[in-house]
Amino acid sequence: MSDFTGLPDLALRTHRAGVIAASDESFEERENLINPWRPRFAEHTFGPKGQEYDGWETRRHRGPGHDWAVIRLGMPGVIRGVVVDTAWFKGNYPPFTSLEACRATGYPSPAQLDSADWVEIVPRSPLSGDAEHDFPVSDDRVFTHVRLNIYPDGGVARLRVHGEVVPDPALLTGLTVDLAALEHGARTVACSNMFYSAPDNMLSPGLARNQAEGWETARRRDNGNDWAVIELAAQGVPALIELDTTNLLFNAPGEARVLAIDHRGPGPLPSTDDPAWFELLSRTTLQPDTPHRFRLPPSDRPATHVRLDIYPDGGIARLRVLGALTADAERELNARWKA
């Protein structure tokens, strides 16, 4: 698996992406391309159009041309790599694929995107059946949409578009925002354990529908505790913390603590023994299946990272750190958005 797959999936349905157009979806719907679960398959599940697949499948071409699907990214950003997954498509997969990307303002219709400045980020490349295909991308521009091309037709189970989130600063500056939101560019940079699920899950948009949509660790059998370090979307001043244990009925942490640090220089983060770390939320009792909100004392002390400690282990459905960007952060975000 390529290194880029550790980055957020900009095209995931649960990250607010959508498949807004496709040349054809005669056999299976285009929306399946961005489902969050791994592709499923059950033999002999025949519907009126034939064997049912968990993916996007087009009819057989009888002339020139090829099929395509346009995906609006849920989070704009710099694409570092894509995964084209043909899981379960063994005799009906496309032999070749390519990928294009564009950047569009506002909320364009599929027809308006026809005249967008599309650029090729993955050249025409071969595919095989029932396999994941990783394609690194080396373009540093910010994109909002991608177009998956398949030659000439066939089925693709999933498209994953991994990259670095670059939020539109017009939606963040001058407001109180979630500094720890994945969709704003925050992400987990270290954690003690992610046996059941990844800590980036607790930064995802919306509410967790079940335990799998949060962060959950294995059961500890020692005297330690689990933790996760989150790089915030940008430097900001935290004002409110939410620790949501919804759906975690018997495996919520007993307690939690949140530290913060303002670290923008090169090099690794200092250890938590370093006085540069300061406490946002002291060690506090948590209840199962409960959204906890803690308003912080007024402060003008900025932070770039937070560390969530849970005692001794368990799961957190969502972590929110509401606050305002600093003036420096606003300038940096504007510069990156315009680059």
Automatic annotation (TrEMBL):
GO terms for molecular function: allantoicase activity. The keyword Ligase does not apply. It holds the Pfam family Allantoicase. It comes from the Bacteria. Pathway: Nitrogen metabolism; (S)-allantoin degradation; (S)-ureidoglycolate from allantoate (aminidohydrolase route): step 1/1. Its EC number is 3.5.3.4. GO terms for biological process: allantoin catabolic process; purine nucleobase metabolic process. Residues 18-165, 185-324 form the Allantoicase domain. Transmembrane segments: none annotated. It catalyses: allantoate + H2O = (S)-ureidoglycolate + urea. Keywords: Hydrolase, Purine metabolism. InterPro entries: Allantoicase, Allantoicase_dom, Galactose-bd-like_sf. NCBIfam families: allantoicase. Belongs to the allantoicase family. HAMAP family: Allantoicase. This is Probable allantoicase. It comes from Nocardia tenerifensis.
